[in-house]
Amino acid sequence: MTRPHPAQTLIRLAISASLGLALALGNVGVSHASDLVNVPDATLAACLVTELESEGIGTELTADNLAKLESLSCTGVSDLTGIGELTALTRLALTSANVANLAPLTGASRLRSLWVTGSRQLTSLDSLPSLPALTELDLSRNQISDLAGLAGRTGLTKLVLDGNRIDNLSPLSGLAGLKKLVLSGNRFTSITPLASLTDVEYLVLSLNSIQDLGPLAGLSRLAELRAEKTDVRDLGPLSGLSALRYLHVGYNHVSDISALGGLTSLVTLGVSNNAIHDLSPVFGLHQLRVLDASDNGLTALGPRGALSQLTSVGLIGNQLHSVDALAGARLTLVNISDNQLTNVAALSEVAPDATVYLWDNKIRDFSELPDTVSVLAYNQDLGELPSVDINTPTDLGIRWTDGSPICPEIDSTTATCSAGRVTYASPGLHHGSVRLTKPDQMFGLSLTFTQRAKPDVTFTKVPKIAKLSDRNTEVGMSLRSDLTGTWSPTPTEIDRQWYVNGKPGAGADFQGFYYDVKPSDLGKRVKVCVTAHRNGYTDSRICSAQTKPVRLGDLNVWTAPKITGTAVVGHTLTLKPGTWTPGTTLHYRWLRNGHPIKGATGRTYRLTGKDARAKIEVKVTGTQYGYHSYFVYTKPVRPKR
């Protein structure tokens, strides 16, 4: 026997108590338990009781009570049985639902707004009743693949279907009353059925594999379009959408935005993560206020003041050295992080309360910004600044928005700083950094740089390079870069570079202590240079004399060739060629009593009657460019019959 839900138990107890009291008072006009509406889903029943109480209607799930509810919002409902009794209902929201059947909604004929979201069981809309008053339908994040149940619902003005499995939009073609349509995160590739929806004002197509926006060309009332992360390349079909105010086509393959040049109503344009290198088509869009062109590889924006109409701009991850096109703009939000900017002069007229992001640039002077703005400018890499003389105060030009000079931290105990002017008392390369943060305020700065103080001093002792070879230099030899003597003081780093005919070789083979002479060096001369480094000292470079022209080398045989197998007529012998200098080409010749055996030039040989008691051996000859040819004989064998 199934236990009743606690809410229904309480309701029945309340009914019993009321009945007893009514009988005691002689009142016979009471509700009976049989008047209760069957609501088997405990979550839905509890939700209904809560809503009835909050509206002051009561706690009984009677048809009369339920018919008074006009709005309901529930979470986690699986079964809608009984909900059709809510005949006055105009708004229903079922979030994180797990329903598969929408047929119980049949009685809710006044329903204007319906949300059923997050159900893994809802795959089709065949069970959706006609609901003649319905104008808004949200079916987000379900498992719907078939939209046939929506055909003919011309009263719909808002339809949200994001996060489903829809691959065919044909049933939507007749919904001419739609003004808002959300289709993101589905599986369709064609939007042809949308061409007839000429009243649509808001359209979301993101996260679908769409290439052709052509069907949108006639949507003359379209005011906002979102088509991020599709496969769109061509914006041409949008050129005539004069009502378009908000356009988002980021994360696509767009390289040309010339089609947007006539969209004079545009207020917001998002084209980030594309391949756009020319923003000039939007210079004349005087209504444009928000532009996001981040991550496009832009190297230039345009002439000074070309984008002065903007109030918000995103240009993250480009290669911009200048943003003069923003001069005069009253910007309230700026993000030009991860570029190559060295100054902020073009941003001098941003709004006093603006927020400015300038991470990962090369800026040291922020004084041209209003000192009331919020600035986040971490990771400014200034690289190596021009060298200066020791004991000479130098203004590094590091300034905050209020114009105050900033003294960096220097990795040298002999460096001092006052009012932004650094003095180096010792020569060499110095490393500096700045970090400013105020947790209670929206600003922060960090930067790094290096700067060389001169003149450098020279090493007091310098070694010599030993002779590279005491004999002729041959291919295959290993040359050493030995030093006689040492540097003083001791270098912190020593580099080696080997040269062939005066040209430095590339790669690790040419930068080690040893150098193995290569076949390509034949006839050429080799030398090595060794360079010592120490901060504050002039690099010390010494070079060996060149060798004589490299001569042919001798091939090495580390493991001798050997005949293996059973030395009996009719059996096959196999040659193990041994181990030779890498790159050597080997040639084989089988011999019988010192004479070549006709056709026997491979690594195997099948013994014949002629070989019985004869001396069988192999002559192995090695050849390689840059080396003398060399041959060896195997130890012979004498086959038996």
TrEMBL record:
SMART domains: LRR_TYP (SM00369)
Residues spanning the signal sequence: 1-33
Keyword presence, Repeat: yes
Pfam families found in the cross-reference section: LRR_4
Key words, A-Z: Leucine-rich repeat, Repeat, Signal
Domain of life of the organism encoding this protein: Bacteria
Entry keyword Ribosomal protein: no
InterPro entries: Leu-rich_rpt, Leu-rich_rpt_4, Leu-rich_rpt_typical-subtyp, LRR_dom_sf, SDS22/Internalin_LRR
Protein name: Leucine-rich repeat (LRR) protein
Source organism (scientific name): Propionicimonas paludicola
